[in-house]
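thoughts on my protein:
***
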Amino acid sequence: MGFFEFLSRLLAGLFGPSHPSAGISGAPDGDYRIYNDKNSIYDVPTVDTKASAPPGWEGEPPYRYIDVSRYQGKITLDGWRKVKAAGYKGAMLKTVSTNRKLSKRADGLYIDPTFENNYKNAKAAGLDVGVYYYTYAISRTGADKELALLAEALRGKELTLPVAVDVEDNKLKRLGKQALTDLTAYALARIEAMGFYAQLYTYTSFANSRLYVGGAALKPYDVWLADYTGKTPKVSFKYNAHQHTSKGSVPGISGNVDLNVTTLNYPRIIEKKGLTRLREGA
């Protein structure tokens, strides 16, 4: 495939409907890795950090960033400086999820134990920072509890990348497609009301089967789409960021790392909109 053909396909995927090939994926870091497509076993590895972008990318690299959580272990300040030196511009950090073994709360909610240090050190290394949280909520009451802890984690912090809600867990499937779509839209609206740039994270087959991503409720929000096939995701909705592998090798971090690309300048967009800090009273 020539450069211009590949570039047109990638941009079509990022900014509008695309149709060439099957989609699957995983997650930034949920307690479950969900694979609903046979091709998912071919999770595309990316180990050349000088070209960490979807396979076939031949032009100037897009905005490249990573996402991390406790599964990557402790990342030192020196480690984050190596991440930046490798060409990555930002990081999405896990904040809130549910795990009764890690939580001291009756509801099982907890803040990722690596979040504070990752935030401090990634910022000190000069990287843009955003966050995501992994939802198990099946009601507005549950969503409100997650969002309240998210607000606690973000108080006093400045973000220049989005705040994403990770919608993918098997437990969410007990909700119907419209109910889950409406609950997701509710959470995203609450994130915006908190003063941040809201974003939906999901993967291709979940988006196609469990959410009305292109419908009126979710259309206002950017989509961070996970798809590891190495091909243009088979979706009919617009997405703005692509998690293209969970097997990246990044200097400064041990083990596999999720790698992402976008052609949007989120730091400029977010700063212009003034969506960098938790609003008073939120």
Observations:
- The helical segments are 3-15, 77-85, 115-124, 140-154, 177-194, 204-210, 266-273.
- The beta strands are 63-68, 90-94, 96-98, 109-111, 128-134, 163-166, 198-203, 222-226, 241-248, 257-262.
